[in-house]
Specification:
- The chain has 483 residues and is an alpha/beta fold.
- The chain has two domains: 248 residues, Rossmann fold, CATH 3.40.50.300; 153 residues, no CATH class.
- It is 46% helix and 14% strand.
- The strands form two sheets. Strands 2-1-11-10-9-3-8-7-4-6-5 form an eleven-stranded mixed beta sheet. The chain has a two-stranded antiparallel ribbon with strand order 12-13.
- It is elongated, with a radius of gyration of 30 Å.
- GO terms for molecular function: ATP binding.
- This is ATP-binding protein.
- Keywords: ATP-binding, Nucleotide-binding.
Length: 483
């Protein structure tokens, strides 16, 4: 099923669609001079696709914070957090698939660029299991990917160019689809612009920008004059997600608005010149002699922990099926254990990659209304190892002893160690090689022998073999249960 959204109408009144799935794979470049309707186009695209895909907006002017009022985006004020907090928030955003707006309007230009670069780099460096699809819209992209050195420091320029290049060149494999919008194509780094396969070109007047836009649209110099004549809100579109041939589109209406929207003309005051002069000078000396009014106290910003909890809470609420109520992690423990036990008993489950198992686990939790946002990939691996080893058969004392011994065991050998320890706690003989191979997720007898050697060398188990070839395995620390 192909997810398409209507971006506007062509000259004949027919809808012009954008294929969101194709957009995720091919990226988008938007260009238009100030006043051409570029931000309006971005807003339309974000509003129409809000229910289909995660969205991350880099907003240097604070124009897109109103998305939070209608579509549940979380606003992150970039000036309120440290570099490490911004990076931690970016990681949480990828983990919980939260749609956010990174508002940078309270920062100086160079601070905006560094904050955005650190944020984008953290999104890009997220663990593989969190590579979910997301649209990353960067407004005023010429700031973050300049074609030439300007007034910003050279290390800042290198940092932001690296982040933007990673987004546009290598982001697709990590689920990140860049949407870059710029006023000046000539000021945007070519290696960033060249990675986009879809284009929406608005009104521009400078020849150098007009010619680059025409080249991207496959138009000759004479046809390029059309770009200069475009009205506000009208764009020429081309690309696999839009149209195979250039198409003129008038962008549709939007529900939200930017804080910098112009109010239009207003009637001027009707006071005569002498009356206006008297108003301007009345009590001027007395007012100037008074001390300056104190600045208002800054609005308190939410601490990073509170914002992280909000991201997790919204993600959990979005994942919860309609009609179900939220549950605390302690109340969900039974549901989580039941799902994990069910997965562990399925044939071939232990042979699957951990990332696939984690996604399957998250889907089952959503279907049953079980909260799982508190369980990350590391925690899931240990819980799945416990379920695979069958620790649910043990009584409370046996299980507590086994889990205490397993606290320092590496994740990659945890499941077979737990299976051996569980058998020792119950007083049974150790699992045979076939059972250990199933739990370990391998079909190689050699790997099982090397596994047992490793566990013995690290002191986790003791292996004894008699002259008849019979092998017995004991677990130090569980002697009281064996007796």
């Amino acid at each position: 099923m192909r997810a398409q959204i209507e971006i506007g109408r062509d000259s004949g009144g027919q809808p012009v669609m954008i294929d969101v799935e194709e957009l995720l794979a091919t990226r988008l470049l938007v260009q238009g001079n100030s006043g051409s309707g570029k931000s309006h186009l971005l807003r339309r695209l974000l509003e129409e696709s809000a229910g289909l895909v995660q969205q991350v907006v880099i907003d240097p002017e604070g124009d897109f914070v109103s998305l939070a009022d209608h579509f549940g985006h979380i606003v992150i004020d970039g000036g309120s957090y440290t570099q490490r907090e911004i990076e931690a928030l970016a990681a949480r955003i990828r983990q919980h698939r939260a749609s956010v707006v990174l508002s940078l309007d309270d920062l100086e230009v160079e601070q905006q660029i560094r904050c955005a670069a650190q944020f984008l780099t953290a999104l890009f460096d997220a663990p593989r299991e969190h590579w979910y699809p997301a649209l990353v819209a960067v407004d005023e992209a010429q700031m973050f990917a300049p074609s030439a050195a300007g007034e910003i420091a050279e290390d800042t320029r290198r940092m932001t160019l690296s982040a933007m290049t990673n987004l546009m060149c290598r982001g697709r494999k990590r689920g990140l689809a860049g949407i870059v919008a710029t006023q000046r194509l000539a000021k945007l780094a070519k290696n960033v612009a060249a990675e986009a396969s879809n284009f929406l070109m608005g009104r521009t007047f400078l020849d150098i920008d007009m010619q680059r836009a025409a080249d991207l649209l496959g138009m000759d110099r004479k046809q390029a004059e059309r770009i200069r004549d475009l009205e506000r809100g009208h764009f020429l579109g081309l690309g696999p997600a839009i149209s195979r041939r250039p198409v003129a589109v008038k962008i549709g209406s939007v529900k939200t608005g930017g804080k910098n929207a112009s109010a239009g003309l207003m009637p001027l005051p009707t006071a005569a010149a002498d009356e206006m002069e008297a108003l301007l000078h009345a009590s001027l000396k007395e007012e100037a002699a008074e001390p300056a009014p104190p600045r208002p106290a800054p609005v308190a910003k939410p601490p990073v922990q509170e914002l992280e909890e909000t991201i997790a809470e919204k993600a959990e609420r979005a994942d919860r099926p309609a009609g179900t109520s939220p549950q605390a992690p302690a109340e969900d423990a039974g549901g989580v254990e039941s799902i994990l036990a069910e997965m562990a008993q399925e044939e071939g489950a232990t042979f699957q990659p951990a990332a696939n198992l984690f996604r399957n686990f998250a889907i089952r939790c959503r279907e049953r209304g079980v909260a799982s946002a508190h369980i990350d990939m590391t925690e899931f691996k240990r819980l799945f190892a416990i379920a695979s080893a069958g620790l649910e058969r043990l009584d409370e004392a046996q299980r507590a002893a086994v889990e205490q011994l397993a606290e320092g065991v590496a994740d990659d050998v945890l499941a077979p160690y737990l299976a051996i320890a569980a058998a020792a706690a119950e007083g049974r003989t150790a699992p045979d090689e076939d059972e250990l191979a199933r739990v370990y997720g391998t079909s190689s007898p050699g790997r099982i022998r090397r596994l047992l050697d490793h566990l013995e060398k690290t002191g986790l188990i003791v292996v004894r073999e008699d002259f008849g070839g019979e092998r017995s395995i004991s677990v130090p620390g569980l002697e009281e249960f064996a007796s």
